Amino acid sequence: MLFDSSIRKELARSFGATLVVLVTVVMTMMLIRTLGQASKGSVSPSDVMLVMGFTVLGQLPTILSLSLFIAVVGTLSRMYRDSEMVIWFASGRGLISLLKPLVRFAWPVMAVIAVLSLLVWPWANSQIQELKTQYEQRSDIDRIAPGEFQESSNGSRVFFIDKDTPDTQAGNNIFIAATDGVRESVTSARSARLETQNGERMALLSDGQRLETSRDKPGVKISEFVEYGTRIGSAPTGSAEELSVKTRATHELLMQPLPAYRAELGWRLGLAFAALNFVVLGLAVASVNPRAARSTGLVFALFGFIVYYNLMTLGQSWVGAGRLGLVSFMVMLHGGMLLMSLLVLAARHNQWTVASLWRAKAPRPPRSPA
Q1: pLDDT tens, 292-335?
Q2: How far is CA 203 from the centre of its chain?
Q3: Which pTM does this prediction carry?
Q4: CA distance 28 to 21
Q5: Which residues pair with 159 in a beta bridge?
């Protein structure tokens, strides 16, 4: 019992340290990625931290699984290196008996991973999608920034206002280029102000000029005005876009037998099953070669983690394309990985080797009579 508690304490320390490092790395990467999206106009600069937080929250199941795998492999490798495993084996306990304290430590982490993948993952994706949609569907007035060319929500107009702006309701040196498919116009004015007339937002231009051309008629129409009003409304709502599959709740995926929904459901369930497989696989492969470097086990753990998740991504694409069923995919990948890990664990526990198995199967020569 004392040995079990010491293993769990060391696993907790290793898991906590690994989790902090991985979360820091992922947050830095997501911050750089989100800043890139903000510079391209996909995300509001004021929502960068929110988008980054929701993205990291959605990636927590993967981070927790990797932290758990590294903690198991690193702790057991250290025990092999310091000959603590020799004491464990000398007390009459085998390698499989270590599975109980490992599962006892890992089951809360696996429960958190299951909750995050089934409930928090779609919620975080829906929050990110909502922030991006709100920013993309902001009104033309909100898009206008002094000293910058800004395109309207439907792409039919381009605005420009001089930096010398007295307040948010007025502007100087206005430029508007508009097209409706047949006619193109360029309007410039010395000043402009915003007003609300009959429930509509209007921009009243003063002391300006308007150039209008038509594709089906030659020539340019030039007109000057003292005051000219143009409607600037909010972005058209249009038809509601279909939500991304990643934003769908898990119970909605269960109710719809579509291949894309089955693929996303397989990914979410796979995150929970992968955590269990990583615990068994970490126990099965953890060992120390005195002639190899100390980080060899961790390098192997990272390699196995990458291969496993690439197979999950590949299987998700196959299920989404209808080339493979969800149950078949889950059994082949996660069930096969669990079976392989248990076989390797049983072979190391019973010290099976190819030579011993060959000797056990080889026929024995008959005994000579006395």
Answers
A1: 555 666 777 788 888 999 999 999 899 988 888 889 999 999 99
A2: 42
A3: 0.69
A4: 11
A5: 150, 176
